Amino acid sequence: MTIKRVxxxxxxxxxxxxxxxxxxxxxxxxxxxxxxxxxxxxxxQCNLLVKKGxxxxxxxxxxxxxxxxxxxxxxxxxxxxxxVFKMINPLANSIVDAAEIxxxxxxxxxxxxVNPVLEDIRKELGSLRENGEIENYLSGKIKELFDKINSIExxxxxxxxxxxxxxxxxxxxxxxxxxxxxPEDKKIDSIIINGxxxxxxxxxxxxxxLEYGMQMLIGAYIFYKVLNPEKVYIAIEDNKExxxxxxxxxxxxxxxxxxxxxVSLKSKYPMGAEKTLIKNVLKRKVPMGGLPMDVGVVVNNVxxxxxxxxxxxxxxxxxxxxISVTGAVANPGNFIVRIGTPVSEILxxxxxxxxxxxxxxxxxxxxxxxxxxxxxxxxxxxxCILIKKGLPRNEGNCIRCGRCVNICxxxxxxxxxxxxxxxxxxxxxxxxxxxxxxxxxxxxxxxPSAIPIVAYxxxxxxxxxxx
Amino acid sequence: xxxxxKENITENNAENNVLDDSKVSDTTVGAAKDNIIxxxxxxxxxxPHIWRGISSAKIMxxxxxxxxxxxxxxxxxxxxxxxWVMLASTATAVLVELIIKKARKKRFKMDGSALITGLLLxxxxxxxxxxxxxxxxxxxxxxxxxxxxxxxxxxxxxPALAGRAFLAICFPTFMTQWYLPGNYGVDAVTSASPxxxxxxxxxxxxxxxxxxxxxxxxxxxxxxxxxxxxxAGILLIAFRIIDWKIPLVYVATVVIMSLIFGxxxxxxxxxxxxxxxxxxxxxxxxxxxxxxxGRIIFAVGCGLITFLIRRFGAMPxxxxxxxxxxxxxxxxxxxxxxxxxxxxxKPQKAKQAK
Lengths: 467, 354
Fold this sequence. Notes:
The structure holds two protein chains of two kinds.
Chain A: E1 3-5, E2 25-27, E3 33-37, E4 47-48, E5 55-56, E6 61-64, E7 73-74, E8 79-89, E9 94-103, H1 119-127, H2 131-140, H3 142-150, H4 154-163, H5 176-179, E10 190-195, H6 204-211, H7 213-227, E11 231-237, H8 241-253, E12 260-265, H9 274-282, E13 297-301, H10 302-314, E14 320-327, E15 333-338, H11 343-350, E16 358-362, E17 369-370, E18 384-389, H12 403-407, H13 414-422, H14 426-431, H15 442-446, H16 453-466
Parallel strand pairs in A: 1-12, 2-15, 10-11, 10-13, 11-12, 14-18
Antiparallel strand pairs in A: 3-9, 4-6, 5-8, 6-7, 8-9, 14-15, 16-17, 16-18
Helix pairs in contact in A: 6-8, 7-10, 13-16
Chain B: H1 2-10, H2 14-20, H3 23-26, H4 56-66, H5 68-78, H6 80-103, H7 113-123, H8 131-145, H9 159-170, H10 172-175, E1 178-179, E2 190-191, H11 205-214, H12 226-238, H13 245-261, H14 265-270, H15 274-281, H16 292-312, H17 319-336, H18 347-353
Helix pairs in contact in B: 4-7, 5-6, 6-7, 6-8, 7-8, 7-9, 8-9, 9-17, 12-15, 13-15, 13-16, 16-17
């Protein structure tokens, strides 16, 4: 009913290349094996709870940690733990333990129990196969469902979300339960549901909002119930007009129009970055080094909302997610894949065009990591697999044109970091607030000398962290 | 620690080193060796994986294209002689850069910057300057004002202006002999430039403004036509090659100073090399500040010094030296004018908030 439209925003206009925009989400076959790194989130690495050779079922807890900022890991298929080894975690540039699980024939589910009041809904959902049916069923029962959710204790909801291993699925993989438990002196008055998806190529969140709109909204309602803010904003970029209309009508249908509203934002990069998003939606600035909580806001991705809905209604831990597979593949599309599925198995289904110089990028083209290795698994933080021809860089001298300074969403001076890092002046990096950099890549994208500024900044940051 | 860091960075693949770390294979558990994520080649590309594709060379060539306007005006008003000056200057500039790169065993890249320096220098010279002087000036610009500092991106002073300043100091008589346009032959009429003390114009003010606007006046070969320079400036701003702040603030400062000291505003703006300097010289990326506020300070400084030299200095024109002086201030401006990062709080305030 009420779509708030934000007209004037700064940022970078990128070629969108969202070719998979109109492709419905398809379910991929179960993989023959999965590789599960024991740290797929921001925070402490988990300890493995199973042994090599042990049989595990789908959804069974296999790794956990005592630390508050951490999220447990579940087995995503039924099978046998075939090996435990170490691998590189591109998320944190560190080496982590990982478990490999080889699938067995039959799939057995080991889901969490749900609250007794939701038990009948879980049973009925279990009998539904098609996603469309689930959506219809949920929207038919939406009022009753909200009442039932309201009757559950907050603590229980937070515990279920923690036990389901839910992390922010937008890319940063921050454990969601931490966001749901703000310190007492911080009053949360707004929740922003992030459906911007400002990176080119990726369309996973777009499809979630179109096909899983009701489940996403229930997830958002769960967060709303726990945090009890005044308003929930669902922020969507205006290149996804169909999603804006769909979510708006769903809000009206479920009678949430008083507290929920859709915010349409201009399609500019990096709109989906937490800090720029809060600035554009609420005109608030998150203080340097602070969290959105400091200005009374919690931001969650639409994928996280859907995962929360699955966890509360079905007791299903975070074992699958929707990703886009796009770029130089024969059959691009949006797929539901089990977490831990090796990229090679996904590419087999999508028919990759092989060439000598190619990049396999996990994530979008602006912030994603080139892995260049097909055995790598899809982790919780991955929302896109992009196959691209490698970008040849002829790094030139900085001509001090100031384009990086103009474009930086964090108001930094990116050109200086390049100089400082080249000359090992890491203390100067700190003086120029290198930690404020969100590594969005805008500076390197516009740089006429093709300097990989972000790479220099990452180097500077990791050396400073190591000192 | 420092030594190893440096190695990482000079190789520009610090992250690769993590991936190539031999520890990875040492800690492998038996049979799982196949699963180890080790790459077979060393190439890993860094984010972002897309690039806008506007390269430095492209920017230089668009800038060069905009210089066609004053160049055409130069040939139109001062004849073929102007063309030879421009050719000698650009050819020398490119040649000297090539020689120096070869001597230093560096890769020579035709990025258009030497062409720009050469052409800019030529456009600021008087029409009848001997060609050998042009060659010396261009060679000085490239060799001693640019390459000595480390080449493109490292020079402190605008190379073209440095070359011009060098010639003005070495050969003051030649550098201040101005001619009226239209007299190409040996009997060319010498004339004072409009800014000189002995400049006399017979006619109405309107006629003077008209001549200066179209370029029919004595001066350096490229600086006389205000109209074409303004046109080129508008195009450069529209294509986002130069920042509008520098030329606009520069000219505005001179206008305000003229108002204060009761000078003729239109005359001050169109006379001499002010417009040419504001559009093509002060906007040079390498020698101007990078921040918006820094650029405004830079432009105000240029405007003030230009006006002070014109009004109180010994020389009739001050654009060249004002920009050179402000070039010298650029590192200082960039050191102290820094934008506040997103969400910045003053240290005491941040303490209170916590």
